[in-house]
Specification:
Length: 180
């Protein structure tokens, strides 16, 4: 129940707004990401500026999201800040009948709806920007991988190659079979 209470702040009550442009700001922090069980991002500090243009039969919503998210380097396992700065746009159409033609760019709401929940959209927009393979050097700002961890990794590699050279020669025959 706490999750629903917290996410209420990410709703835009559009029913009382006059036609035209309106701006909203939302802070996105660790508590926001805690509300989504399977979030790729667990920590971050972002600001979402939402520009909403209200028209008679639809809303045009533009999201401008800036800030940083915490990622873990896939090489040295160090946690680092990765910057995000992007824009997204969505159209919200009002309809009386059930319209199953929702797409990524067009969302449908009932004519009786009075607010637009942006929490899920913010969550998806941020999580889709998480790189498949994260590295300090590529996604971080002015940082490199942890030299101690890199030294440990390279020493483990040499230990493994020494162990492979001490393998019983009978296994070599099996390796030949596997490679065919």
């Amino acid at each position: 129940m706490q999750v629903l209470k917290y996410l209420k702040q990410y709703r835009i009550p559009f029913s009382g707004l006059v036609s035209g442009k309106h701006k909203f700001e939302f802070d996105i922090d660790d508590k926001f990401f805690d509300c989504f069980e399977h979030s790729l991002v667990k920590k971050g500090k972002l600001k979402a500026e939402v520009a909403l243009q209200k028209q008679e039969n639809m809303l045009i919503v533009i999201f401008e999201i800036t800030g940083t998210i915490k990622l873990t380097c896939d090489i040295c396992l160090a946690e680092f800040d990765s910057p995000l700065d992007f824009k997204e746009r969505v159209l919200v159409k009002f309809t009386e009948e059930d319209w199953d033609s929702e797409t990524e760019e067009v969302i449908t709401l009932s004519k009786t709806d009075y607010e637009f929940d942006v929490a899920t959209l913010l969550y998806e927009y941020i999580n889709v920007r998480v790189p498949y393979y994260s590295r300090c050097v590529e996604q971080g700002i002015n940082i490199t991988c942890d030299p101690e961890m890199l030294a440990k990794i390279s020493s483990d590699d040499t230990t493994e190659s020494n162990e492979e050279s001490k393998i019983d020669p009978r296994w070599d025959i099996l390796k030949k079979i596997k490679n065919n």
